[in-house]
């Protein structure tokens, strides 16, 4: 019945389904355990008419013109420049930490001196990873690095990952820079925009094809079986000899053969308020106060005009496979021990020629939205673009 079965209706699965159906005329089935398409990018209107992001804010940004042009087939865009504040010592300052943050938090004479030293050492407009800045042998710069580390980075990271920053891979810590500029934007990519009708509409347009079928509210293990010894596959108790694309947990696909991989989950507490606006910017981080990491106000993103406003507080938590309130994996945990386990899974996966792993969870890599679209397009070109 199907040439390819895809597990997961997020960007990785949707892009590959669209490409296979439109470019190869394949019959594709997309299976997702949730009741909706779009994965963690899913958005919807709450009961007050505010367009919310159900799994936390998703802000599209990229320097990749191919990715932007590809997605532009499925949506019109509304320009959006994301700014984030952090609540530090009773005031809100821009993050990533920049020269404006520097002058907001420190005395003028010290801030002036540090600004000159930063520009002299690194140049203007440069982003320096916080852990690199901490290694510099200069008394004032060392003070600044420790100040930023303690006030903005260390407690936020501890809440987000449940670990000390030094125990997290540089792939994660490198994403938290000090920006030597006065640009308050969170991203500096060439293309920054929000889908005009929301993310869910993008997925609906991508999957709207007669060759694509979607099966929601379905755990793939209930309808698909993989014999780990022979590589034989079954779908709905019948032999399946087509292609199988998997975007879920790699350890789950292979029945935890080499042990379970750890992930981090999130809990979201939504609240609707009668006021027109709750906070100055879309997102305010709380690295040192409260149990949550940030508050997002969605009307800053949608630019809607409604009587009230909806916010969400974000609480990082441990991932628990059998706990419905904790069993959504948002982030792989990157450590040397976990990498060794992952390498065994990836090596084992290579023996299954009809199985393709794509995505943050399947590959255990951190992908932004544009990264995973680019990755899916690359996988299609490399593995499926030509018959055979």
Automatic annotation (TrEMBL):
Domain UDP-galactopyranose mutase C-terminal, by residue range, is 151-366
Presence of the UniProt keyword Flavoprotein in the record? yes
Which GO molecular function annotation, any one, does this entry have? UDP-galactopyranose mutase activity
InterPro entries the UniProt entry points to: UDP-GALP_mutase, UDP-GalPyranose_mutase_C
Tell me the domain of life: Bacteria
GO CC, sorted alphabetically, is:
cytosol
Names of required cofactors: FAD
Q: Which Gene3D superfamilies match?
A: NAD(P)-binding Rossmann-like Domain
Question: Keywords on this record?
Answer: FAD, Flavoprotein, Isomerase
Among NCBIfam families, the record links this protein to:
UDP-GALP_mutase (TIGR00031)
Q: Which family does it belong to?
A: Belongs to the UDP-galactopyranose/dTDP-fucopyranose mutase family.
Could you tell me what this protein is called?
UDP-galactopyranose mutase
């Amino acid at each position: 019945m199907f040439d390819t079965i895809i597990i997961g209706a997020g960007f990785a699965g949707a892009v590959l389904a669209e490409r296979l159906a439109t470019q190869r005329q394949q019959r594709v089935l997309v299976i997702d355990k949730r009741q909706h398409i779009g994965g963690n990018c899913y958005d919807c209107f709450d009961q007050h008419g505010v367009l919310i992001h159900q799994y936390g804010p998703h802000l599209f940004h990229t320097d990749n013109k191919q990715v932007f042009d590809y997605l532009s087939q499925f949506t019109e865009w509304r320009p959006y420049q994301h700014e984030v504040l952090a609540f530090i010592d009773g005031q809100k300052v821009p993050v990533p930490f920049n020269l404006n943050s520097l002058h907001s938090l420190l005395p003028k004479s010290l801030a002036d001196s540090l600004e000159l030293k930063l520009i002299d050492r690194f140049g203007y407009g440069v982003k320096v990873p916080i852990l690199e800045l901490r290694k510099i042998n200069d008394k004032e710069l060392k003070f600044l690095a420790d100040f930023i580390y303690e006030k903005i980075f260390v407690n936020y990271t501890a809440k987000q990952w449940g670990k000390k920053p030094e125990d997290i891979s540089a792939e994660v810590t490198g994403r938290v820079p000090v920006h030597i500029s006065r640009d308050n934007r969170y991203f500096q990519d060439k293309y920054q925009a929000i889908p005009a009708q929301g993310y869910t509409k993008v997925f609906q347009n991508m999957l709207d094809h007669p060759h694509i079928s979607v099966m929601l509210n379905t755990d793939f293990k209930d309808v698909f079986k993989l014999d780990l010894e022979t590589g034989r596959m079954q779908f709905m108790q019948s032999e399946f000899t087509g292609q199988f694309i998997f975007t879920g947990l790699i350890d789950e696909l292979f029945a935890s053969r080499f042990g379970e991989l750890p992930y981090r989950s999130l809990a979201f507490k939504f609240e609707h308020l009668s006021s027109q606006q709750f906070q100055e910017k879309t997102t305010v981080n709380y690295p040192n106060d409260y149990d949550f990491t940030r508050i997002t106000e969605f009307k800053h993103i949608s630019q809607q005009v409604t009587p009230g406003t909806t916010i969400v507080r974000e609480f990082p938590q441990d991932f628990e496979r059998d706990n419905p309130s904790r069993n959504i994996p948002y982030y792989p945990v990157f450590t040397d021990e976990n990498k060794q386990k992952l390498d065994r899974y990836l090596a084992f996966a290579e023996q299954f020629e009809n199985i393709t792993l794509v995505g943050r969870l399947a590959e255990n890599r951190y992908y932004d939205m544009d990264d995973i679209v680019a990755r899916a397009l690359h996988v299609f070109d490399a593995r499926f673009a030509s018959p055979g």
